[in-house]
Structure formats: C-alpha cells, structure tokens
Amino acid sequence: MKIIVNGLDLNDAINKVSRALPAREVAPVLDCIKMVAEGDKLTLFATDKDLAIERSITANVMVGGAVLVPGKLLGEYIRNIASETEIALELDDGYKMHISSANSQCNINCMSVENYPEQEKIDESNSFRVTERNLKEIINRVIFAVATDDTRPILKGVFMEAKQYTLTAVATDGYRFAMCKKPLESEVDNLSATIPSRSLSELSKLLSDSENIATVYLENSNMMVRLENITLMTRLLTAGQYIKYDNLVPREFVTTLLVNKENFEKSLNTASIMSRSDKNNLIVLDIEEYVMKISSTGEYGTAKEEVTVSLKGKDIRCAYNAKYINDCLKVLDCETIKMEFAQHNSCIITINNSDEVLYFILPVKQVV
C-alpha cells in the first residue's frame, strides 16, 4: 500500500470510525482500524461487533492494499499532524506503516486483515429515506428517556417505526415517555425496530443539520444507515417486544396551561437547585390562573420561583422529578409549550399547536 491523502480528511475519517472501537480491550484486531486503499479512495472501518462505522475519503492511491492499524495510536498521531496538507502512508512487507508529512515521520507496527471479522451483509430491500436534519432531531428529542438499567433490556433502545410518510421514535424508562414524529422522503409500508441507544447516540454525532438524505436499511437483527461517504451498521435489540405505547398516554385532562418555554426552563433550573442532591430531585408546582409557583426543599434550604402562565381548568398542585421535565425542555426549540395534567397528576408536555413531539411524565408522589 502506498497512498497520499489530505491530512484534515484523514483526521476526520479516523475520528468518525473510532467511535465504533471497543471501549475496553476485547481482542487486538478489534482495537484496530481497517484501512483499504483501492481506486481513488481510502476506506476506513472499525467495529466492536455490535456497532460498525465506515468512512471513505479521496486518496491518491499509487499502490492499493489493506491493513489493520492500531486505532487509538493512529488517531492520536494523525490528530497532531493533520494541519499539514498532505500525509503519505506506505506499508512495507513487514506490516510496518511509514507515515510522513512535511515535518513529521513515524513507523507503526500493523497487522494483517486475515483475522479481522468480515462485514455483515444487510438485506437492502427494506429501507426508508429521511433527511439528516430530521433523523438527527428525532434521535435527540427522545434518546434521553431510554432506560439505563438491565431490568428490561428492550427499553435500553429507541423504538422506531416508519409507516407511510411518517417516522415515529419513542423511548421510555418506565417513569417518563418521549415520542417524536418526522416526515419521510418517500412512502413505506411498515418498518419497525428497536435500536440500541449507544448506536443512535453515535449516529447523531455523524449526522449533519442539512437536507442531505440518509437511507436506513432494516432487517431482522441489523440496521444500516448510509450517508454521503459514511455508513453505520448496528445490531438491533431483539430480546422481547417493545411496549405497546398507543394507549399509554392519557387522553383526558383536568388542567391545561400554556407557558413560555425559556422562562419556564430558567425558573425550573433555579428552583430545583436546592433539591439536586436528593435522589428524586423533587420540585413542587403550584398552578393557579395566571401563575405557576415552582419550589424545592433540600438539605441546605428552600427555593421558590414564579412564572406567568395561561390556565384552562382547575388549579393544581403536583410534584415531579425536575430532571425529567428539564430533559424535555432542553431539546425543544420553540417559544411556547403546552402542559396538560391528567386526573392523577401525570403530565403531558407538547409544543403549542404542534403534534411533532410529546413527553409524558409521571408524578413523583401525590402532593396535598
């Protein structure tokens, strides 16, 4: 192998595929990035066997070939010389890679690709298309609500369903529920899967805020997302069925209010400072016709805030984990939110005049 590549392009490619390297040492080959030089491209690939990322960049390929390079070592070295315009990579017969630029040179001991796991082939007959911007938003607006414990493994992922022209994503940890809907670029019959939160978190970092199209392929146990010059593959969560969420959310409410999102978020954060050391991070909402009073009590004292609201229905007093509400507010980009309270104080948060997102939060306890 003998190639010349742009330093910044190589650094970007290494950074992206390195997200799929194992967090802990599993096997020497999996700690490596697979590099394949062919035609006018250099393709980098990394996997931990559950998640895989591939990235291709333009290269001047004088001699093609394939090799495994220690991923973390390569990434750290290239990061330090990336600003130099051109970087030359040359592999000798002893599997030693010579890396050189205008002012730097190094040699890295590499490995043969013979024992590297083969890339799994995914059936590309079942797919849906969505803009990168919408896919990124739908992930970020629900992923915070996934479960983090192993009690119900299926809840450690996000359930996605593509039907007709709509992509729906839902997540829950048993205490809160998040749902977001985005339009698809073309009609599909009905595709669904539960995707590990870690894989979606890494995918979100690869997605841009552009209108470029992402194509998502699903089969029984795998998902592949193809972007421009980047491909991500992951195993799906298949241990059991995801919860039936259609009837989970209340449909009748005793109280509805509108509140400025920015003002509410600031007051909530300020009022909850006193209770952050408490396990439940408890805040109490006293809601009357024109005002919402937010209060918390902790080891070191109390805090109270007030925010103006528009109320329809009866006055209400209820308590929630402040983090559960704040997690919703952080991912919403809107001026006004609507909060609806059911009979037993469970709360629905949506964007006013929009059905794009819905958050359902259970109360911590009844407040008299």
Explained architecture:
The model has no long low-confidence stretch (mean pLDDT 95). The protein is built from six helices and 23 strands. It has 368 residues and is α+β, with helices and mostly antiparallel strands. A ten-stranded antiparallel beta sheet has the order 11-12-23-22-21-16-19-18-17-20. An eight-stranded antiparallel beta sheet has the order 6-2-3-4-15-14-13-10. A five-stranded antiparallel beta sheet has the order 5-1-7-8-9. The protein is elongated. The chain has helices at 7-17, 71-81, 132-140, 197-206, 261-271, 322-330; strands spanning 2-6, 32-38, 41-47, 51-58, 60-63, 65-70, 86-91, 96-100, 105-109, 127-131, 157-172, 176-196, 213-218, 222-227, 230-235, 255-260, 282-287, 291-298, 301-313, 316-321, 336-341, 347-351, 357-361.
Which helices and strands, and how do they pair?
Layout (H helix, E strand, L loop, with lengths): L1 E5 H11 L14 E7 L2 E7 L3 E8 L1 E4 L1 E6 H11 L4 E6 L4 E5 L4 E5 L17 E5 H9 L16 E16 L3 E21 H10 L6 E6 L3 E6 L2 E6 L19 E6 H11 L10 E6 L3 E8 L2 E13 L2 E6 H9 L5 E6 L5 E5 L5 E5 L7
Antiparallel strand pairs: 1-5, 1-7, 2-3, 2-6, 3-4, 4-15, 7-8, 8-9, 10-13, 11-12, 12-23, 13-14, 14-15, 16-19, 16-21, 17-18, 17-20, 18-19, 21-22, 22-23
Helix pairs in contact: 1-2, 3-4, 5-6
